[in-house]
Amino acid sequence: xxxxxxxxSATLERWPIAGSFTISxxxxxxxxxxxxxxxxxxxxxxxxxGTRGRGECVPxxxxxxxxxxxxxxxxxxxxxxxxxxxxxELQTVMPAGAARNALDCALWDLEAKAAxxxxxEMMGLPSPRPLTTxxxxxxxxxxxxxxxxxxxAHRPLLKIKLGGEGDAARIAAVRAAAPNSTLIxxxxxxxxxADLEEHLEACAKAGVTLVEQPLPAGRDVALGxxxxxxxxxxxxxxxxxxxxxxxxxxxxxxNIKLDKTGGLTEALAMSEAARALGFEIMVGCMxxxxxxxxxxxxxxxxxxxxxxxxxxxxxxxxDNGLRYDGSTVYPPEASxxx
Length: 338
Description:
Blueprint: E1 7-23, E2 26-39, E3 52-57, H1 67-76, H2 78-82, H3 87-93, H4 98-115, H5 119-123, E4 131-132, E5 135-137, H6 142-151, E6 157-161, H7 167-177, E7 182-186, H8 196-205, E8 210-212, E9 231-234, E10 253-256, H9 258-261, H10 264-276, E11 280-283, H11 290-299, E12 305-306, E13 324-325, E14 328-329
Parallel strand pairs: 5-6, 6-7, 7-8, 8-9, 9-10, 10-11, 11-12
Antiparallel strand pairs: 1-2, 2-3, 4-14, 13-14
Helix pairs in contact: 1-4, 6-7, 7-8, 10-11
């Protein structure tokens, strides 16, 4: 697409969660997202006027983001788009994070719709295939988590949120309630160096295949000093390509989330770079609508673990959302994104 002027608008939306979503840092009952919309208002270089592209992001307080700040950051570049800001230029004028994610994904959507092609075609990639996604069990008491796991025991892959003290009992209760599901766990930085090996052993005993971010980012050197009985995946410790090199001795896998990488463009480049370094790939998400998941489906095609269940945790999804058949998630229709 050329550097034609583009009109930008952004909206804050609130989507109720079915019940609540709890991790080690707290609980929430709604997903707050920002939707960026880019539009071409007239015919330029053969592009049909009125073409629109959308991208969704989730501001995350863990990284110092608030909905108001992210909304303001997006709106602040409106004039640049009017002057023809391109997707390539966007990577340098904005840092990685939620704001750039919404804009980058909106640009991909706009380019695809303007060209009458799918994003995968424009990238020279094969059409995305359906994937099996994890389903998340929120943090709670062992009894509550066992009840939730029993209801989800038909799903092939469960992601279990842990919180530190009492995690051995939690994971044992979940395994008893869902004996046939593959289990991965996410501690969200809640473990300490003192209890690291004990918790890893409890997970290994329960047949867990992957542990996500056990120690706080920046305080995870102990992972490189121990023999890890199961694969350990970086989440809060990894954001974009610049953060990869220092993690090779500590982690076996990385979790790529578009809200961390700052969009699809960097996420795809990061996936390629990480695989070249020997990392396994996990593609994750925040709790959000299908509009957030849709571009991540392209990155997830090369992932060993897919965690794109955000819409399944909501009370309802947006219109024309992704199709979920149990734990199988299907690629987006053009009416949603891309």
